[in-house]
Structures are given as C-alpha cells and as structure tokens.
Amino acid sequence: MRRILFLSHLGADRASAYPVLQAKALAEDAIRRGTVPHTIVRSAAAYGPEDRFTTSLATTLALSPGLFFLPSGGTTPLQPLWIEDLATALVWALDEDGLVGRTYEVGGPEVLTLREVVELVMSAARIRRVLVEVRPWALRALFRLGEGLLPRPPFTPFWIDYLAAGRTGALDTLPRAFGLQPSRMQENLGYLRRQHWGREWFRRHTRQDGAHG
Asked: What is the distance in angstroms between the CA of the first residue and the CA of the last residue of the chain?
C-alpha cells in the first residue's frame, strides 16, 4: 500500500512558541486532510553518532571551563530515543497496514531528567564538570554571549528553549504498536568515547575557517 510516512516531533502544536514545532503541526494537518494513506510518527529527541543532541552536549561540556550550567536544575523530563530504534520503527511502519491513519508518539524506554542525560554524556565522553543550576533566562544570555565569542557554537539558545519543557510519551508505544523494545540510553553512548570533543571542535572549525579564508 502506498502511503505517506511523516516523521514529526513530540510537542508538535500549531500554537507552539517554537517555529519548528509549529511547522510540524501544520504539516501533520495537511497530511490528515489529504487523501493519501498516512502514518505520522511523533518522535522524542533522537540521539546517535553525528547528532545535534548528545554530540553537542559533549562538545559544550568539553569547552566549558570546569562548570556546566543546567536550566532550572536540569529537572526537565526527556525520553531519548536511540536513532537505530527510530529507524527500525519507521521501516516497519512502511510494511504494517494496521498503522495506517494513525498518529503515534514514540520515545525511549525510560524518562530521564536533563541532569541525568548530561551525567550519562559526561560518563560516556569521560568529561568531568560541576553541574550548576541557573535560571533559563540567564543561561540564554550566556549562550548568546557565546555566539559572539565562538563561531558556530555547538549548543545554542534554541536548545535552552527546547529543553525548557518536557516532551515525553507513553513508554510502551514502541513495544505495543511496533513490536519493538527500545534500548536504554546508557547502552548506546559508546560513540562518545571515540574522540576528544573539545579538540575535535577546534580542529574542525579551524579547518573550515581556513577553507573560507
């Protein structure tokens, strides 16, 4: 059966304050109004090699001078989803007719706070930093300052806004609807051990700046 398989995001809402989530919700509405069979998958934050989530965290931790600031103490709940589990679910969705016309919210098998995610990333990347609570507005100002000091900073104010609200779904959606048991985050972070993230950031951006010079 031909169908549209649309990858959306938890928190997609036309009334959202975030343009990305607004755009996802508008796309969902357009697909539902259409006549082509569809399946919509709203995903939690996915992570894996070359992502903009855990690798950005690892790089920012490596560049931080001893301290790492957590908005509101890092209490925001997250449900990180291993990229291979997400890819598997999407492939299976193409072959399962029972998923047509449905919207699913999927995430990993556990809800972790932002602080717990940062601690897992620090452990995997072998980086030690003191985690300090800070108000979101103050952290946003610090990162805006960082944008002026660092070319293409790894962690931007967008992430501060994004992580200000928890976005989680039911823990059993992937096993129940897709027959897939997702893996825990701590089992999949080996890729963070493969390089020195601060040195790699400077090496990459020095090379890019030289190429543009």
From this structure: 51
